[in-house]
Amino acid sequence: MAIIKQKLADIIKHWISLDKSLADNDARLIANVLYGQLGTLGYDVPNMTAMELLKVISSTNLYSPTTISRNRRKVQEQYPEYRGNKYNERHGLAEKVRTTIKNIKI
User: Fold this and answer.
1) Cα–Cα distance between 29 and 9 in angstroms, integer?
2) Span between the terminal Cα atoms of the chain, in Å
3) I need a surface site. Which of 12, 15, 31, 55 has the fewest CB within 10 A?
4) Closest CA to 48 of 34, 33, 69
5) Do 38 and 56 form a contact (C-beta atoms < 8 A)?
6) pTM
7) What confidence tens digit (pLDDT) does each residue in 8-58 have?
8) Residue 35 to residues 1, 11, 47, 83, 98: CA-CA distances in angstroms?
9) What is the rounded CA–CA span in Å between residue 34 and residue 75?
10) Rg of the chain (C-alpha set)
């Protein structure tokens, strides 16, 4: 199982390296990862109907969206260069809140 997780982490790093906006958009990251995985399995995704795609997704052992999202968070935790703008904004705001709380005099 660890091999699969490492492979998925490498896939996530690859996609974020190609398009930095994917670091902030799980839906697009998931779509790209699944598109790549289906292509690797030999499916012609651009020419599939929606019904064919849904059948393949339901019957193939693909990465789940939850697993991709969880691995993206882990990659961003371990490798700061893969963090997106939202991560930096959120953590900057958290630092401001910490400072404000420390400065409150009771």
Assistant:
1) 12
2) 51
3) 55
4) 34
5) yes
6) 0.77
7) 999 999 999 999 999 999 999 999 999 999 998 999 999 999 999 999 989
8) 22, 12, 12, 22, 41
9) 18
10) 18
